[in-house]
Amino acid sequence: MNPSTILLLLPALASTMYFDCSNIRDHKQSFDISALGNPISVMTSEDHSPSPTMTNTTFTIDICRPLHKAKGIPKEEDCPNGSQVCGIQRLINTFENSTAFLAAIPIAGQYTFHGGTALDPEITRLKTSSSASDREKEGFRLALHGPTYPDRGGKKQKAVIEFLCTDRAEEKRALMHRKEDDDGEEDHSARGEVADDGHGGTLKYVDFTNVGEEKVLSLEWRTKYACEDVQREDDQSGSSGHWGFFTWFIIMYFPFLPPSPPILICSSNPNYVHLPPSRY
Fold first, then answer.
1. pTM of the shown model
2. Is the pLDDT confidence value at 103 over 90?
3. For site-directed labelling of 101, which of 6, 57, 66, 252 has its Cα 20 to 30 A away?
């Protein structure tokens, strides 16, 4: 292949391998969720009553980059290399007070095993979605793809995260209501956990179920970074409240400028008196 052709293909190849969470764009609208780029986990529990056991599944996601390998965890009990969304299942026995590893589920990422699997992100701006219910929301939906699991007879894995616009006060009220609902609920057979993302928003587990030929993990992320005007507001506040580097450079450097050199003027008039220029 011609080297110039390879260079032209590099941007397309990079877009399938990496996901730029600082520039998510659909229908002329951009979102920047790079501030959320750290591992965050939610958990769901399935009670096996009357047996004294339950299955806990912890779903961990890093929306911007592959997850780091956990220290001190056996390789077979950790997420595969390249995972950006992964589920770890454990069996809890409350009678024996024991925990047993069940599975590490690769849900979405850039994988090299079994021929490789692309993350292949799909972005849908909710306000321009074909669904009428979507158009009533503000934010975007992000679909990330993974491999077939289990290897034999399994389904293609997929994560769908719905980023919804919310403010800190609204989310604080929602968290209080959820806590009240959890305190009063009686059915604990399947329970979703809500995690604080550290930036005034929350990540919520919705479900993990079969959808046609795929097994889909659905998550809901309420955050100000899904608001369509947040980038513009940040830009305006930044421009009004901060001076640029060049301005500060001029202010700091100007007092140390050397005195202006004398200007030599040649004149044929013998009575001409030359005075050095003033510095001020």
1. 0.72
2. yes
3. 66
